Amino acid sequence: MGYYHGILxxxxxxxxxxxxxxxxxxxxxxxxxxxxxxxxxxxxxSAVYSVFYALPLxxxxxxxxxxxxxxIAAAICGLIIGIPCLRLRGDYLxxxxxxxxxxxxxxIMNTEMVGGPRGFINIPHLxxxxxxxxxxxxxxxxxxxxxxxxxxxxxxxxxxDEIAAENMGVNLFNSKLFSFTIGAGIAGxxxxxxxxxxxxxxxxxxxxxxSVIILVMVILGGQGSVTGSIIGAxxxxxxxxxxxxxxxxxxEWRMTIFPVLLIILMMAKPEGLFGAxxxxxxxxxxx
Amino acid sequence: xKLKGLPHKFLACLMTLIISNSLYSAETLxxxxxxxxxxxxxxxxxxxxxxxxxxxxxxxxxxxxxFDLIIEDDKSDAIESTTATRKLINIDKISAxxxxxxxxxxxxxxxxxxxxxxxxxxxxxxNAKVTQVGDYISRACFTDDFQGVVMAKFAVNTLKKKKGLVxxxxxxxxxxxxxxxxxxxxxxxxxxxxSTEELTYAAKDTDFQSLMRKVKRANPDFIFxxxxxxxxxxxxxxxxxxxxxxxxxxxxxxxxxxLFEIAGPAVKGSYISNHFAPDDKDPVVQNFVKDYKxxxxxxxxxxxxxxxxxxxxxxxxxxxxxxxxxxxxxxxLVATKDYPGVTGKITFDANRNPKKAxxxxxxxxxxxxxxxxxxx
Amino acid sequence: xxxxxxxxxWDCLQYFINGIAQGSLxxxxxxxxxxxxxxxxxxxxxxxxxxxxxxxxGFYALRAHLPMPAAILVAMLSSGIIAIAVERLVYRPIRKxxxxxxxxxxxxxxxxFQYFGQLVFGADPKTIPPFIDEKIYNLGEINxxxxxxxxxxxxxxxxxxxxxxxxxxxxxxxxxxxxxNLPAAELMGINTNKIxxxxxxxxxxLAGLGGMLMxxxxxxxxxxxxNLGTKAFVAAVVGGIxxxxxxxxxxxxxxxxxxxxxxxxxSSFRDAVxxxxxxLILLVKPSGILGKNMKEKV
Lengths: 287, 376, 298
Fold this sequence. Notes:
The complex is a heterotrimer of chains A (287), B (376) and C (298). In chain A, 71% of the residues lie in helices and 0% in strands. Chain A is built from twelve helices and no strands. By secondary structure, chain C is mostly helical. In chain C, the strands form two sheets. Chain C has a two-stranded antiparallel ribbon. The termini of chain C are far apart. Classes of the chains: A mainly alpha (287), B alpha/beta (376), C mainly alpha (298). Chains B and C meet through helix 2, helix 7, helix 8 and helix 9 of B and helix 1, helix 4, strand 1 and helix 10 of C.
């Protein structure tokens, strides 16, 4: 696998991940800082399936099953964390999910079966770039349609004003739980794709830092904007790589430049590049 | 298809813009380095890179075939590590690579290098699985298995201690592997464990009082701690404060002057196995230590020494190879024999692991001194 | 009763004592968190980094052969000044933009200082000697060191000081007013920007002090703030964020729980337990142990 190929693959996986977080954060307005935990849960669960319990089926079928396993594992995690925590708001939810993400990572570190701190090696190469982009495409379509559906609008109304939404007959808890669980599940799908393209998993891939990066991808593109999420994921996967080429000093300092750019973005355009809008030839607003 | 085309276009535009000016000199031979310069394991990576840079300066002065050195940071992260490796292979078109110093990240990038058939030598990844990835993967250090055996023999034969205790850092594969090979050999030689309970701690722990209570009750003759110096320093300090006065034994993870800063005089009387001794009278070692001190102002540790040797071995292979093709370099590399490294005379076995002596160091007031040499 | 059971009881007592000593440090850091949150409702992720900077500056002050008290002063002042600068340059412009941009900015600031620290100070851990010579007292199976006792006393003193400050001084009363209702406080003629700067300074100075006291168990390295900062935040939330005694209480709870888990089970679950407690507390009483429940108004 070549360098561009590798980056393109990451771009595809991050598009799926960003879209999944956008469902939770952008659509529903719930704040998650533990998204990498769901990603990791899906990645490890699907890899456990294809390494230890794989059925004697053709590779594409097994990949589909692995994706399903990833989805279910992460969605269950989402449900477990969602039921108690979704009563919390704003910063509290952020910290609770942060804690959850760390608990997932620590549990993986302490599980000998999946390699613990050494990492999980020899995962079969079941997926490729076509899988990754096909999934990203399907998820993006799903998000577009959800955004226009009655249920999607109900979720978006929660973001705008919870009390008003409740008065309009939106079941707050169920809607929140739905977006949280499905969002987590989609992150699990991204995890399954990640595991079966990289063929190597390491607990450090699923730490707080990556949760932040995914969140920043959502914010950069604009919360609630599907096309924005895609562009956010593309930019934030490529820019840190691009900084490698900017010459000695910049390359050395790229990890300090990145947060500075982030702060400047937040000051200049706190709603992200696109706000809740979609890129379109006709200007229209949604949500 | 509109959605799918978008990232492609973006990627293509950005990349061509940025990279077009870095594709100029395709002719010079290039050696890539991936090391954690920032992130959780940066303290090892920075020292490792220091050693590599020092070796590179020396090689440049010596003449012979020239090559460029390209160093990439991987933030101690597996995704970054694989991306950086791919960048070195596909964009910079490196002919040889000095790999990640930690075992887990070396395991992440080794399959990529193996697939591209680029000779790869990791300075300090001691886990046995690394070189099993394929015939292009080699290492400059001995494996954990060997080190554990060395210390078990040392405990039984030299110290004459039969009742031991092992403290494991269970967030580190290095620690677990070393603990296992030590325990196996120690029990085989007739030693006994002072406690049946597995005593563990985690990386970044700072408070070991509770662990030390268990140790004190087990009342061992010596304590083997295969960990890294930050936690080990605190463990020893807190153990001595509680009146545990038996000797501590350890591995190469202890090797840093920081250990003495953290633990102070409490380290005195401990023994470790290591790759080299800075006070070794061998002129190769003395020259290295002198040069390193001149450039960086501190004594080199094992990460620096092995980084230095890793590039040295690779350079020897490049000079001897009949062409600059990676396959030719690798053919010479895997046949490395009696390379006079800072960390001993290095000869690769059939699995591309070096056969070389380990040294046992004894901790004095303010540093390790050479105690004895153990041959494989 | 078997010998093992007696040992077990002694152990629990010992872990409890160690937990109080460690919890004192968490409490010290949590106080800063809680004050900043109380006043502008911002989760200051960079608080741990203020601690790191303080400890680093203290370390270099000691290396320049300053005596320990002077080094502690340097640590407190430097982290306080950095905090004021960060507040003025970064947080103040973003304050009006809403919570999520503010939180992202705080995370960005935190990351900036971490990586900046790794490149400027170097990634290798540095050691700060304990501020007094360590002596250990044995009481039966229990060991208590004089450093532990001193840290506990300093934390108590800081708590009393803060109580006096917030209740009996003009600036403290202003702080409380701002935290109660910022626009109203402004209307009453309080220079809110000054009060916010002061709060940042005070919180960061305490973090700097905490960083220096940590020489007792920890080494100082650029990434230390992350873990410590989140734990202190957890402590602040558990006790009831925005409430000064709550932060201290939360710090002790987290410290004790961590030591019990590390001692009786596995230390690799040390970090997990604080988050577990956090989730538990948030379920039972989202406003924290000492917090008052507030209904959102339409």
